[in-house]
Amino acid sequence: MLAIIGGSGLTQLAILEIERRQVVRTPFGEPSGPLIFGRIGGRQVVFLARHGYGHTIPPHLVNYRANLWALKHGAGALHVISVASVGGIRSDLGPGTLVVPDQIIDYTWGRAATFFEGGDSGVTHIDFTQPYDPTIRHELLEAARSGGHAIVDGAVYAATQGPRLETAAEIDRLEGDGAHVVGMTGMPEAALAREQDLPYGALCVVANWAAGRQSSARAISFSQVEETLQAAMGRVRDVLGRFCEDGC
Ligand code: HPA
Q: Domain segments of the chain: what residues?
C-alpha cells in the first residue's frame, strides 16, 4: 500500500480509481479528512488531502501526527509520497519546475513534531541525516524521466511556518543557509514519517518565484500561482501514475 499526501493543487487525484473512503480516528486526533482508498495502475493506493478536501486547513494547523498515524496504522501504508508546492529560490528553479528534494532545513515552530513525548511514549532520537528515502527519490526521478518530464534531482527544502509568505530578506537568509526551495508543510511531516518507520519522499512543484526573486521581486501573484499549479498537476499525475506502475 502506497500513501500519497496531496498538497495545494492536488486535493483530488483523478487517476485514482476510488474504491472506498474511511474515517480513521487516531490517538492524536483527527486527520485532515477521510482516507481515500483505490487503485492506480492496479496498485493499491491510499490518498489524503493534507489541507482537507475543501482546502480549509492551513499549514501550521495540519494535524501531521494524526495524518501519519492514520496512514500507517489505519491504512497499513508502507511508503509515503508527499506532493507539495514550493517557492523557488535557486535561479534554475522557476515556476512549473518539478523537484525531488534531498535535504531539509526546518524553520517551523510550535507544531506537534514528534510521536515521542516522553512518559509512556518514551524518548527516541531518530536518525534524520538523510530525511528522504533514497529509493523513493530514485523511483520518482525515474518515473518522471520515463514520461519525458524534466525534473530536478536534489534540492534543500526550507520548511517555514506560514501561513504568510516570506519577506524578501527572509528568502535571502534562507538562501544564505543553503536552501533552494521553500514550503510550509515539509516539516514535521517528514520527521514523523521517519518516526513511524515509513519511507518518505517528496515531489515538489515550484508554484512561484520565492519572495523578492525574479517575477516576485515586488510581490507574489496568486493568480499566477494558481495557473502554474494547474498546468503542472497534469505532469504530477503522470509521474505518480508511472511510479505506481514501476516504483517501489
Ligand atoms: N513560500 C512558502 N511556501 C510556498 C511558497 C513560497 O513562496 N510557494 C508555495 N508554497
A: 2-246
Given a cut of 90, is residue 11 above it in pLDDT? Answer: no
Q: In CATH, what class is 2-246?
A: alpha beta
Report the pLDDT value the prediction gives residue 129, as an integer from 0 to 100. Answer: 98
Distance CA 205, CA 234 (A): 11
Which amino acid belongs to residue 98?
L
Alpha-carbon distances, residue 176 vs 78, 89, 169 (angstroms): 36, 11, 10
Average pLDDT over residues 138-167: 98
Scanning the structure block, which residue is given the C-alpha cell 485532515? 32
Q: Ligand 1 centre and the CA of 174: distance in Å?
A: 13
Rounded distance from Cα 140 to ligand 1 centre (Å): 22
Which protein residues are within 6 Å of ligand 1, measured from CB?
A: 85-87, 160, 165-166, 182-184, 207-208, 210
Nearest to 12 by CA among 69, 50, 41, 43: 50
What's the whole-model pTM score? 0.96
